[in-house]
Design goal:
The complex is a heterodimer of chains A (113) and B (114). Chain A has no helices and eleven strands. By secondary structure, chain A is mostly beta strands. In chain A, a hairpin with a 2-residue loop joins β7 and β8. In chain A, 36% of the residues are buried. Chain B is globular, with a radius of gyration of 14 Å. Classes of the chains: A mainly beta (113), B mainly beta (114). The interface between A and B is medium-sized, with 23 and 23 residues.
Chain lengths: 113, 114
């Protein structure tokens, strides 16, 4: 059974903390994505990566950075967490190319106090 | 750039009733089209997708969708809804030859009454 796993389902952090969200996929996919999901706003792309050490900004990259040192792992980093980053974070992966299905992890609900 | 609109934020249906969720896209040619479902507390799962060919696409869980080029629509349908279909549904569009990152709609929340 193919899987995308995320390191935490729920996370509570304080303002100013550095936060790491980890995502691992076991499908040997080239593409990996980080989305933020907020009610009424759908999924908004933060960053994506099409290869190890390669990354591209999505629609809302401000306040976030990413790291992809291994093909199966894609990390989202909040350098200094703020309350407006309280949200659901979804990781996804897909094969390289057009029109390929994305496989999603279960999400991490992050609360920043 | 492509865009997608899901005009209904919430839809309420009774169990056993038929369902249609609307999706309209904006793109100059025939795009890739997807419907995903997100059950409570879960990630998204692909229901079905359209690339070309037959405009009526069958998916999992008894869902189907019809691509209508003239209306720029890709509506999702199910003839008889089950309580377990209560979830958030997302339409997504991808652009052949452009960025392969799909654009998601804002989602439609389906509420099923017993």
């Amino acid at each position: 059974d193919v899987k995308v796993t995320q390191s935490s389902r729920y996370l509570v952090k304080r303002t100013g903390e550095k936060v790491f969200l980890e995502c691992v996929q076991d499908m040997d996919h080239e593409n990996m994505f980080w989305y933020r999901q907020d009610p009424g706003l759908g999924l908004r792309l933060i960053y994506f990566s099409y290869d190890v050490k390669m990354k591209e900004k999505g629609d809302i990259p401000e306040g976030y950075s990413v790291s992809r040192e291994k093909k199966e792992r894609f990390s989202l980093i909040l350098e200094s967490a703020s309350t407006n980053q309280t949200s659901m974070y979804l990781c996804a992966s897909s094969r390289l190319g057009y029109g390929n299905e994305q496989f999603f992890g279960p999400g991490t609900r992050l609360t920043v106090l | 750039a492509q865009s997608v609109t899901q005009p209904d934020i919430h839809i309420t249906v009774s169990e056993g009733a038929s369902l249609e969720l609307r999706c309209n896209y904006s793109y100059g040619a025939t795009p890739y089209l997807f419907w995903y479902v997100q059950s409570p507390g879960q990630g998204l799962q692909l229901l079905l997708k359209y690339f070309s060919g037959d405009t009526l696409v069958q998916g999992i869980k008894g869902f189907e969708a019809e691509f209508k080029r003239s209306q720029s629509s890709f509506n999702l349908r199910k003839p008889s809804v089950h309580w377990s279909d209560a979830a958030e549904y997302f339409c997504a569009v991808g652009a052949p030859g452009g960025s392969y990152i799909p654009t998601f709609g804002r989602g439609t929340s389906l509420i099923v009454h017993p």
